[in-house]
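Q: For a teaching session next week I want to show students how multiple molecules come together into a single three-dimensional assembly. I've collected the sequence lines for a complex. Could you give me the predicted structure tokens for the whole thing so I can convert them for display?
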Amino acid sequence: MHRFGGRFKHRLMPEGNLVTLAQLKSGQSGTVADIQGGRRMADRLNALGIIPGKKITKTSAMLMRGPVTIEVDRVGVAIGFGMASKVIVRPDRVP
Amino acid sequence: MTRILLMGNPNVGKSALFSRLTGVQAIVSNYPGTTISYTRGYMKLGEETAEVIDVPGTYTLEPTSEAEEIALQLLDSGDIVINVANAINLERNLYLTLQLLERGIPMVTALNLWDDTKHRGVDINLEKLRELLGVPVIPTVAVTGEGIKELVENIPRATSPHRPPGTRDERWATIGKIIEQVQHISHRHHTWRERLADASVNPVSGGLIALAVLAGSFFVVRFIGEGLINYVLNPLFNTLWAPVILKLSQLMGGGGFLHDIVIGKIAGGEVNFVESFGLLTSGFYVPFGMVLPYIVSFYFVLGLLEDTGYLPRLAVLMDTIMHRLGLHGYAIIPTLLGLGCNVPAILATRILESKRERLIAATLISIAVPCAALQAMIFGLVGARGLEYVAIVYGTLFIVWIILGLILNRIVKGFSPELLIEIPPYRLPPLRTVLQKLWLRTYGFLAEAIPIILGAILAVNVLYILGVFNAIASFTAPVVTGLLGLPKEAVTALVIGFLRKDVALGMLAPLALTPEQLVVGSVVLAMLFPCIATFVVMFRELGVVNMLKATGIMIVAALATGGILNLIL
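A: Of course. Below is the structure for the complete assembly, covering every listed component.
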């Protein structure tokens, strides 16, 4: 949630490459590591339960920088591409 | 009177629960000084009657939208809260629950969609949850009515455990602890509904599904609408109302100033309800006989699309296009509403976040989205010359919608906020909720539209008799004949289009236009001024300045499009 606090946290966690939610592949799961938008964006995502530490699965992405859909706690959420580019995710390792 | 508030996240079945608790006699109220409306009803609570309010869905009491601010204000006026939570998604729903508990208002929690927990592999320990929250927790299935009796019995047991206010992180930490103790998730297979849900937000299959759904909706709307007109309303008007009118016409001497205003023109002992243009003839027939059937069928289909959970998916699919037009995907909802009637469509632009979006959406709707009444006339009049001409009209309006949106996105200051919406799972909506919504919307339309239509016909008749239209006609004739290639007589129709577009289109009928002229005429009519009812709503919603801006854009766009069509057809 806090920009710098979030970045600092990543350095303490060695494994996994961080990607943005926009970059995450459809069907892939991961954990929200950081939210790099402004306060208002963090507020809106918080209201939908999308907070650092939350497990998510990307379900689809529209063409041409369209919105991204994810599943959080068994509920679907659609996020605009710009916003999805500011949500940092640590992808789960593919077994 | 005790006031009970139904509060919960959007998409948890709050409205279905509301209609279970209150029955059908619900009232939609506008929150004073704002644009947010809420539904109010009454229920029996032991011996006394309690007022129940369906508060707009809210995720948090730290408001992020106008609707959430209203929810917060309504909260202060309530005595008891029924917190409606989604049993499938306890984590997020508990956030609002904790905030409500911090406010110290007596509360009962309804864990709705309880029937879904089994096949979604969610196991909730109710006893433990009651203990941890300190309030009654009742599992409910609003759609079937399961658990409603227990919920009502538990309303008097609403309590407030006086939870101390916490920070955001503290709340999420508390939720984490609660979830750990009460919820167990087991793995389960995807159901067909979930597969369909995934397919409908996939760019390829989703696009195909969207086309099928929209085409299907369109045919159902036409089917029900035409059925109502041909088998219910026309027979009613012709067998019951026409004799009354003829009798009245005789009594009034068959002509004269008053006769022309009240009855209009009657030729050959038969009442032509569309063209006679009197208060009691067209004034009644246009809203009830022509528009109402389409309004009913349109709102019915829209209600189904809403309550099954399809609309948010359409919003996701449309977001890429809508974004180029300065809107986000959710603007597809007011746009679709506009295909029924522009008035509720403009009202529905309230769901958009910024003033900029609302201006763009309202302008695009009033210019390029033809209402059901107008569409009925386009099909009747233009369709008679060949469906290819109807296709040209629709195609032109669609291209105008896109081009105008692209331009507005460039010139209107500001930026368009991004899409962020929940996509609920598909559900089969209970018929009673769909019907209740249909009734509220239809009633709202009638209450709003009928006085305006009657007033407009009265005004037109008086102005017509006074010769004002002829004056305007000769004044604007060069534009109409030169630029649009229409005969001078068409001007009257275009001017009347300000009041009733469908009627105006009907006035083009006796002019013996070529199909091409008819296409130009109907496109210009569709785009030029919105009808007066839409005008009034735009004024109320956007303010004078923005309404004038929209009007200016309208005139330029309509004349330019008409001129271009005249050149290329």
